[in-house]
């Protein structure tokens, strides 16, 4: 029994010191996450921040907020969530993340919001900027 405990301690020490900084850096990645909920106001003011509450899903326990990317093409605004994954050994199961994104539009008009989900599907909403 004593040898088993010694072997476990030795194995643990080897594992702890075997991971160097380069290994840890290799265990960081970024990936598009699926937005499953977006709560945007129906109206907003030009040149002012318009808050949008966004909820997205990470694929495992190492995932957390990375960034929000927006693309504006005319009156179409596409919003994409990027999850940051840190860790080489992650528990399985999805993690839900909530964040608030500030949208700032300089020109009044009607805008169509698209929130990217998985498989190029979108949640859609309309925003009137005055």
Account of the 3D structure:
This protein is an alpha+beta fold. It has one domain. The chain has 2 helices and 8 strands. The protein has helices at 2-18, 21-26; strands at residues 28-39, 43-44, 49-60, 63-73, 76-86, 92-104, 109-116, 122-129. Strands 1, 2, 3, 4, 5, 6, 7 and 8 form an 8-stranded mixed β-sheet that branches. β4 (63-73) and β5 (76-86) form a beta hairpin. The protein is elongated.
Oligomerization state: single chain
Please tell me how large the radius of gyration is.
21 Å
> Regions with pLDDT < 50 over 5+ consecutive residues?
10-22
Largest sheet: 8 strands, mixed
Shape label: elongated
Mean pLDDT over all positions: 86
N- and C-termini, Cα separation: 75 Å
Secondary structure: elements and pairs:
Elements: H1 2-18, H2 21-26, E1 28-39, E2 43-44, E3 49-60, E4 63-73, E5 76-86, E6 92-104, E7 109-116, E8 122-129
Parallel strand pairs: 2-8, 5-7
Antiparallel strand pairs: 1-3, 1-5, 3-6, 4-5, 7-8
Defining key terms:
single chain; about 130 residues; alpha+beta; about 60% strand; elongated
Could you give a short description of this structure?
The protein has 130 residues and is of the alpha+beta class. The protein is built from two helices and eight strands.
């Amino acid at each position: 029994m004593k040898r088993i405990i010694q072997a476990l301690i030795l194995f643990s020490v080897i594992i702890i010191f075997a991971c160097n900084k380069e290994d840890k850096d290799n265990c960081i990645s970024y990936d598009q996450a699926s937005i499953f909920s977006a709560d945007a106001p129906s109206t907003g003011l030009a040149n002012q921040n318009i808050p949008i509450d966004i909820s997205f899903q990470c694929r495992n326990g190492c995932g957390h907020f990375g960034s929000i990317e927006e693309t504006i093409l005319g009156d179409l605004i596409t919003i994409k969530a990027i999850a940051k994954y840190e860790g080489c050994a992650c528990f399985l199961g999805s993690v839900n993340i909530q964040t608030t994104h500030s949208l700032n539009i300089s020109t009044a008009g009607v805008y169509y919001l698209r929130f990217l989900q998985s498989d190029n599907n979108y949640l859609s909403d309309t925003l009137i900027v005055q």
